[in-house]
Every structure is written in structure tokens, then in C-alpha cells.
Records
---
Amino acid sequence: MIIKCPHCGPREASEYTYVGDAKVIRPDHEDNDKDKWNDYVFMRCNPRGKHSEYWQHTSGCRAFLNVIRDTVSHKISNVILAGPWKIEAKK
Amino acid sequence: MNRYSVFSLIKNALSGHKNWKRAWRAPEPKSHYDVIIIGGGGHGLATAYYLAKEHGIRRVAVLEKGGLGSGNIGRNTTIVRSNYMLPANTKFYEHSMKLWEGLSKDLNYNMMFSQRGIINLAHTPSQMDAFSRRGNAMLIEGVDAELLTTKEISRRVPGLYTGKNTRFPIVGGLCQPRAGTARHDAVAWGYARGADNYGVDIIENCEVIGFIKDGDRVTGVKTTRGEISAPKVGISVAGNTSPVMKLAGVNKMPIEAHVLQAFVTEPLKPLINTVVTWGAGHLYISQSDKGGLVFGGDLDGYNSYAQRGNLPIFEHVAAAAVTMFPNLSRLKLLRNWGGIMDMSMDGSPIICKGPLPGLYLNAGWCYGGFKATPAAGWCFAYTIAKDEPHNLNAAFTLDRFYNGRELDEGGAGPYPAHQ
């Protein structure tokens, strides 16, 4: 697998560390709702098909990326910088 | 059922092996059963077998999307062991081990179950301490375990490098002598033949495409071969648990699907007569009866439903194998495959009623599904027949995550990629 980092360009997957499902939402620190925390810590949609996930470019720029990858074909359709920047990888 | 014996072998040899009967029927699906099992792999077939044998429930259908045993029962490294530490796991896997020990005779089918032992290598004194703790936990539960010195390991596994001139020298190990390997395909075939003999319908090429529900209650399934109703539907689909649960309207599970690769080398003369696991990384290796070295290691580490992996793990696992056995460095790999693991959030399985009425779930086997096949089938059959879990699977609930009763054998936390 090759992931196109918005900063560094196309790099081999072994340069990156998989972080996990990007759709889970961490509840507020003050939030006591057990269901929300259970959803965040344990429950996953685990789709067969397109999956929005975080990878960190640990052996490169160390940025966190939001990658859209198909879990059946391993094809990556989009990579953006995670966070408020929304910088896309050059197609 | 035609019993297999030396006499049937001689009789069929005399007629040129042309008159063997097929081992199980290929029935058309009926419109109603007492129990439907989704998934015709090792676990599903074992469940059907024990439902019929132990509980007298014979109007059972096993629905398989593809061919019988075409999933993870044929995509593993065939290792059977019960060297766990948490009591719930130890008791369960030891029950499985005892079933393995009588399985060939019970099913009248040769599982080629070979109790050649497993040796877990330790590379630091603290790892040896952890192993002696685990070994003692096993002994307390009545499982066999012995601590080995490096000298003893070197005697038992001659090809293994036990010298000091390496990054992770071996300082000892933990052995379970009753562990071993079994012929994986024979497990599926043996259970299929046994279940079919009790009247269970094994229906291949029959994919479940939806569930029939009455309110929340599951009352049957829609398949590519028509609708089938049953008051009890069991799901035993390994890596496809999440997609199948979605069909039933359950959108989130404490499970992620990950790919695990395994490898076979070209055949060699006898080299390794036990199973060896590396403790400084993750590698398990054994030699098949055909002579090929069968080995595997870590997950690829990202969600995947592809039954193939990527090259970095290939290199990583091969490097670990050559570190252990330097004489393998020029061997060629013959085959490599990937299986989809239903990684639960604590590394332990789920065998329970629910989460919907009429539905029963056997999932979350991570990479331990093969050795669990007999006990998983046995406990899942009990749970379906009695509508309550057996003591052996009482801890394997789906709501244990919510209730803070995880069984985290590895102490890795809720990170499937690190289990």
C-alpha cells in the first residue's frame, strides 16, 4: 500500500502507523454518559468497503492524516490532513 | 453413515477406490428448521454436530455462502493449544483440548491431531517470570505446563539459534506438551460428515442477504436460495460478523476486521518436531506432515476484509523466522494467504444469546478460532439449545465491554491492531 501524504508525497505504508476509525467521536472530558464512552472506546461500524481512518506519518512529517480507504480492495480514494487544515494530497 | 476403518479401506482398495460414497448430502433448503446456523466453517459445522449429538436437535440447517470450509478453517496455521492465563479462557480452551483429544474417534474421521507440544520462547528474565506465572496459572486449572532452560530448548529444537550473538538471545521458555497441530480441512469435513449423519442439512452456495424479523425478533433469513424460517438463528461467520450483523439491523459491534497472513515454505526433511513461538516479536512456526514450514506473525494492523495482506508484514515475519532458524534463510516460500480475523476489543471471544431475540452469536475469535473449534461448537450448541450460556462460555458475553468485564488476556487495551 502507498499512502500519499499531503506534505511528503507518496510513501510506503510501512512509514505510517495505523491509528484507527476516524468516525468515532471522543465525548467531552466532563461527559458522564456511559453509552457515549462505550461507543467511543468499544463500538465500531467496521464497514466492508470505504472506511474513514486515521494514520500517522510516524517516519515522515509525523502529521495525522484522515485516509479514506476501501477495506476490500485496499484502494485509497482520499487523504487529507486531519484537523482543521483540510489540506488534500495532490492527485 | 459408512464407517471408515481399515476394513472399509481394504474393501474399497479392492474395487480401485471407485465406490466410496460421498461423505455428506447436498440437500435443497427446506422452508423451515428448528435452528439455522449461518456459516459453514469449522465453528458452524461443529455447532450443528453438537446440537444434534448432545441436544437431540436435528432439524438444523447450516448455510454457507461459498463452499464448505472455504473460510478461516482453511486459512490458519493449524495450532491447537490451551496455554492461557485468565481462568475463563484457560477453562474454555482446556475443554477444547480435551475434545480435540477424542475428536478423531468421536467423528470417525482422522484429524491427524498431533500433540507435539508448543514452546514459547522467553528473551528476558522478566519474560521468564511472566511465563512461570502463566505456567502456574495453567497448572492450577489442571493444564500441563513446564518451564524449560535454554539448554533443554536447544536439545529439543536443534535448528533453533540459542547462542548469545543475537539481538534477542533466548533465556528459556514455557512448554505445553499436550499442544500440537491438527489437519485443518479434516476438521471441517469430519464435523460436516458427523452432522450430516444426524440429519443436519448443509447447504452450500447459499448466501444470507437479509433477516426476516417480527418486530425485534429474528424469525428467519432471506438467502440467495429463498427464504428460510427458524425460531433460532445462530451467526458463526468469523471475519464477516459486522456485515452480517448489519443485515440484522445491528450497526455497531465491539469488533474490527483485520487481515492476518500465514506462510508455507517448500517442503523439507523433518526439522522442527514441535511448535515454536518467538517471544521478542510475534512468530509461530511448525512443520506440516508434508514437510513445509508453516508460520505466521502479527496482523497487518489496519482494518481489512481482503483475504491477502501487504509486503511489510511479509518481510517482518520472514526476518523473525530467519532470526530463530538461520538455516531457513535460503528457503523459498511456496504459498502465502490472508484470513480475516474478527478482532474483538479485548482479544477474547463472544458466545452468547442475542443481541436480538431469536439471534445467537459466536464471534470475536481474533486469531484463536481454529484451536477453539470443538469447544466453540460445543458451547454455542449448548447456548442455542438451552437458551443460556454454559459455565464455560458464561464470561464470553457481548455486554462485557459495557459492563467493564473485559477478558484482556494480552493486557493490550481496546486496540484490536495490537492484540
---
Amino acid sequence: MKKITAYLVLLLLGLGSLPLSAIGQSQNSVLIKGGTVMTAARGTLENTDILVQNGKIARIGKGLSAPAGVRTIDATGKYVTPGIIDAHSHAMLSSINEGSYSVTSMVRIRDMLDPTDITIYRALAGGVTGANLLHGSANSIGGQNSVVKFKWGKSAEEMVVADAPPGIKFAMGENVRRTTQQPLPGMQLRYPRTRQGTIEVMRDAFLRARDYKQAWDDFRAKKTRVQPRKDLELEPIVEILEGKRLVHAHGYRSDEHLNLLRLAEEFGFKIGTLQHALEAYKIAPEIAKHGAGVSIFADSWGYKLEAYDSIPYNGYILWKNGVNVSINSDSGERIRRLNLDAAKMMKYGGVPEEDSLKMITLNPAIQLGIGKRTGSIEVGKDADIVIWSGHPFSAFSRAETTMIEGETYFDRAADAEMRSKMTAEREALEKLDVNRAPGSGGTPPRVPAERREERGHDDIDGGNDR
Amino acid sequence: MTSQLNMIKARSAAFVLTCLCTMAVFGQNDGSEQNQTGRAGTFVITNARIYTVAGPVIENGTVVIQNGKIASVGTNVQIPGGAERIDGRGLSVFPGMIDADTRMGLAEITLAVPGSVDLAETGNMNAHTRAIKGIHPHSAHINVTRVNGITTVLSRPQGGTISGQAAVIDLNGSTPDEMAVISDFGLVINFPRVVAGGGFGGGGGGGGGGGQADFNALIRRRDQAVEDLKKIFRDAETHLKAQEAYSRDKSLPYVDANPALEAMGPYIRGQRPILFTVERERDIRAVAKFVADMKVKGIIIGGQEAWKAADVLKANNIPVVYTNIYSNPVRDDDPYDYLFNAPAKMESAGVKFAISTGDVGPESRDLPYQAGIAGAFGLAPDAALRSVTLSPAEILGVADRMGSIEAGKVANIVVADGNILEPRTNIRYMFINGRMIPLTSRHTRLFDSFKDRGVPERP
């Protein structure tokens, strides 16, 4: 018991000196001096200062001085960009598919957000400040999303972007059909098993939602006195029909995504984003006409049959057709290097530099309905800002400081300080009796996980159907 | 620029002609990805910045490619008559990159298309299975990879404890024979590790599977697995000795063939290296001890914590093929850049290493950017370039033939419009064994098919 108490005390002491206090400076006003500012809206400004006040970008210009009490960061020789936004992530989530039904529009990402997921910190260290947290792709309609900013150290509630319009995950293709999974003996096959079945499951959901809305409209118009029973499955789908909820639709084959665009047009709404959409280049004019955004992998391909026609020129062809394109990670690993994914857009086809940068900043912000408050470096916007050691499209560059609404959540110098504290803490913990070597009386410690994390984005880790 | 374009056009025309001729001779283009094996010739790249890797960078230099080899390199070289000239102004010349751990050609689509997957045999001991016999020379991965400047890879089987033999191949050729640089380069062993939940070979094993594991028991299990592995080595030695004895003296008992044990011969006798897949320090140290005990040649594949075991790696001449730039640190409290800066730590600890993608194939083209990321976290730029060129050539035992721009080496050469390790850089020309390779792939062909698509009106 004594041992455990000692351990707990040490743990608590240790926690006090963990990342949170080292990084979460409470002040949200700062002057960033002398950097090369890539605004993702109005070009690149050399040797330019950004004054952040109360979490917002107050001024952009040359020779600005810091008001009293406002700290200054010297960004001379460095690059400054908007924070990266990942329009498809499963960070902070331990469970992403309610696989019992194919339509689970009632389930909500916000009910399971884990603000301590280390992915947040690693993403910040890659310059990512926000993400669209989505359900997996096992279901044709997977559930309600959350748009968050990665305010490491804060509560889940504080991370959710309160005024982001609600969204919902749809999915089509191999994962929904469950054909990438070996059914266990005795397991019943779930409908749908085909692409033509999948689109009918979706149509059925919209038909039911339309009927449901009609019932409520009739009740509200006093055509009937019987109040309909509230249906948590259909409520969010009614919101889609009313244009209040954004559809983020996972899919690969272009014909299948085209089916969805047509279905949306049949029911009179617009798709928010086609997710992955690795073949979207084949139907770029149709997507542009419909007005959907597309959120892609920069260059992943070939990991499953429906990703075999994926090409790294996808982003370029969509861009050329005037489609709003974002580049997502769908992965706790890839999220750390989205800046290099954007760089690839310049290589494959030749998207201009600023438009390539927009694909990881302003474009995803617009796709998620938060483009008015974040995604570019413009006066009045949230100070979601990254300072890079060099050009963000260089493999040799690192994020040095990542801030959200003016507060620093990652800083490389602070990180170094934190490491030495953690090393000291680990040494202290290792001296505790509970951690004494096996055979010398200590309780054997749990063996740490050995497995390399799956490279998995999306579907590569087939079992999870992200 | 215009002349360059004309050059490209002229060459494209020549290439189309070559193709047409080929088609005329062979009757048809089989439509596969790997049918475009380039064309031979004498080529001269002038006025280029030449990253020799073996020595300093040469500004305004010239490289002559003749008979498949680098005939000469420098600022004052003789240009052979009739050579095809490439104006290298504004361009840089690099050795072709080498990805020293892939599964190239062994799986086309890994998820749910089992008919295209030849990664792993069943069973635990498959020393006789050879990657070169499973590599599909027409895999779309090959062209997609090479047009990004990677000219040579190691491709290896996986699975079991002794997975089989790895091949070193150039990414060009219509048959595995044409591609092979070293058909049977190394033997892949998934070295037994201390893991909760994992069995012999211990490839996987996540957490403790609930509850606390008995660490001592786990170590004993690993030790037993290592003993079992040693027994296979001894069995192979015994088998080979018995065979050799019989061949000298036919009065001795005849020894039945055993392909798996016989395949072990060059490896247990230290003539060819064994590739040990292993990540953690304690397991790497166990490999080093095994290498010393068994007197074999070892290479570490993976190597997350190799820098921590620098002493034993150096003492036993064990190099590392590091495959973890695109991996997350295993433990939550590992520093965020724990696997980004491991190459820099190996460099300063004096461990010989190469950076590799460790990829099945489709993502191998990111090899240069992985080296670049290591450069962002402490590895000097020239060391980063070396880690994907000359260092892997040395580890794969082909540094006499490739890995640098030096006269006499085979002409595996990439010409780019910038630093090859940067994602914005475009490859402009490439050569494998002196053949100029068309910069086309499944991806460029799909791009060409759809880039200008409009929606046709229905009549």
C-alpha cells in the first residue's frame, strides 16, 4: 500500500511537470516578428510581422511593435503559415464503427473524445492545429462528426469548435460491403453486400427521413394532433435534407461517388466532401458542377483494389477543374507530415505554391464550414499559426512553434525542456520498489507494447475499417 | 528551355519508334507496366551539378554514359562522338537511389486481393524460398517507384521465423533474370523477441493481452526460441557436412536432399548475410550476440533503437537498414521525433546504416523524402543523400557497381531539377544500366487519359 501511495504521489508530481504546464502559456497575445509569411490567402509576405491579440490576428505588416506585456517571437529566417487542418482524422477516438447496423446516424463522435491521445501532440509537432474527426467506413451512414482544434492539455469540450456546422460520415465501397473482412463462422452477412445495395440503403434512409420530416411538418401545421416519436436516427438525416449538416462521404470508385452526387441532387442537397475519392479525377467536371469539396490522400494508392487507379495527379486535375481540394491524413502517422503531402501537389501536375498550401489550410477549413475563422493568415482570423524552421514544403524543415488562437501548444524548445523532466521522472519511477528488476523482489512490470503501429490509414489496417 | 523541349520531343519520337519496332518484332505490346525497358545508347550530360556522393559535388560537370556504364565524370572529360547530349544546365545528377528493404513485386494489392499476394509462405522455416522466384516483373509498383529516382531495391519475403531469401533487383527488365543484381542476397530471419502474446518469431504481440505478463517467463520463451533457431543452424551444418562427407567417400551413408537446410549453407557459413528484422535495443543486442555466437554476417532490418546498441553493432560489423521514418514512436512518452532522429543518432554513434521505406512497394517512391525528414532532425544533408545511395549499396554489397557517380560503375543515374530529397523536385531523366528509362508509369498513363476530360454531350 505504501509503495502504491509513493508511486501515486510521484506520478502526480510528475504530471505537474508534464507537457501541459511547459507549453500551455495562458497568454494569447504575441508578436511574431520578421518571418516569411505564407498567408494561404494573399500570397507570401517577406520579412513580415504578425500581431496576435486575444487569440486573433490583429495586424499583419512590417515593423510592428509589441504592445506592453505582449511577448515577441523572433521568426527571422523562418517561415510562418496558417495551422494545418486535417479534414479526415480518427485521432482522439478509440472506437469508430458502430457496426451492428449499416445506418448509424444517431451515434456521435463527441461522445467519445479522448483529449489525452498522444496523436494530438505529435500532430501539433507537425504543424496541425485542427481536424475533422470522423467515424469509420464500415457503415453506409456512420455517425456524426466533430470538428476540433488540438488544444493539447485542455478538455475535450474546449477542443470542439463550437460554431463548426455539424457533419456526418457516409461511406461507400469495399468497407461498407464488408468484403474486405473474413466473416466468422456462423456470422450473418449484413446488408448491403454490393455497391448497388449500398446506394439503395442510402436512398432508403433519405426516403424515411423525408417521411419523418413530413410527419413533423404536418404536426407543426396542426394537420395532425399526434406528435411523431422523436427518431434519433432520422433527425440528422433531416438536417442533411435541410442543408444544415455536411455529408463527408468516404469512397474510392468514381462511379460510386457519382451515384452519391446524383442521389443528393435527387433529394435536393449538396454533398459537403467526397473523402479519399482517389478516382475523383475521372469525374472532376461532374464534381465541380455539383459543388462538392474533395478531400484526398496526396499519393496513397494500390493498397486495395478500389485504390488501384489512384494517381498523385488527382489533386491537380481537381484543382484545374475548380474543385475545392484538401489533403487529409486519415492516420496518426501521416498527420505529422501533411506539409510534405501538399508539396507533392506542386510536383504532380504543377499546382501553384499557394494553392498547394491552401489544400492543407484554407480549403479544409472551408470544407468544414470554419473558413471564416481559420485556415489563412488574415486580420480578424483565429491565430492558428505555425512557425517552421524553413520552407514548409521542404523535407528538411521542422515545425518549431504551433499555436492555436494565440496560445502555444507545441514548441520545440519547450519540448526539449519537457524531455529532460520526463527523463528525470522516469529515473525516479524506475527506482521505486514496484519497478525493481524481476527476481529481486519487485512486482514484474507489464511488458510494453512491441508492435510497430500499423502504417494504416483508412483501410490498410483492414480490421479497423477506419 | 526550348532546346530542352525539342530534345525531349525528339527523344519521345525516338522512343515511340523503338516501341513500334519492338511491337513489330514481337507482334504485340502486352500492355504490361514493365514493358518499357528503355533504350541503350551513349549519353552525355553536360553543365550539370553532379552529386557524386563518393566525393565532393562537381559544379558544371559532365557525365558520360557508355556501354551501360559511367565512362567518365568531371569537368574536363572527353565526349565520345555520336553521343546524345543532354543539356544539364540548372539540373543536378544523382546516383540512382536504393531502397534496401521492400517487398517489391511480391504483392500487387495487399488487402483483399489474395491472388496478387506472394509475401509469406506458410510454415516457420522456409530458407529455400527465394523472392526472385516470386517477383512479378510487370508490377505497376516498379515503374511508379523508379520514375521517382529509385533504381534498385532489395525485395524480400516475410512471415515465419526463417522467411526465405531476399533479392537485390534493378527496377528495369522484362524478366526477373534481367532485373536481378544479386538473386540470392540474404536470408530473412524474424529474430525471436521478448514480447507478450507473441510466439516463436514474435512478429506481433501488442500489449500484455490484459493482466501483467511474467517478464521472466517471456525472456525464457525468447531464449528458448533462440535456442531452437540455433538448432536449425546446427542441423543445417550437420546435414551439409554429411553430404560433403558422402561426396568425398561414397561408402558413407547417402544423405537425402533437404532443400531448406541446404539453402542455409551460405548463410550459416558467413558467406552471405542474414537479415534480422528487429527493433528494440534488447532484441538488437540479442541479435548481435547471435551473430557473434554463430559466426555469421548480420544486417538489422528495422532498427528503431539501433543507436542504443552501437557498441555491439560496431563490434560485430552489423549495419542497419532503418525503416522507421514513417512510423510512430511505440510508447506514448517517447519523444515525438524519436524515430525521426534515430538516423542522426546512428550517424554520430558510428553505426553503418541506410534509410529504407520498408514498404511493400507502392510507397517506396517516398524514399527520398524519408531521408529528407531524417535531415530535418539532425542528419547532415550529404549524409541524408548517402543514406539512400552509397550506404545501401555498401550494405547490399554492390558498392563496387553502384551507389555513387564514379567512372566504371554501372550507369544507374537520375537527373533532376533540384535536390532529389525534396518533394517539389522533378525527375527529368533517368538511366538504369545505361538505358534511358521512359518517365512513364501506370500513374502518368491514367493522368494522360483523364487530365483533359470534359463531359461529352449526348447526341
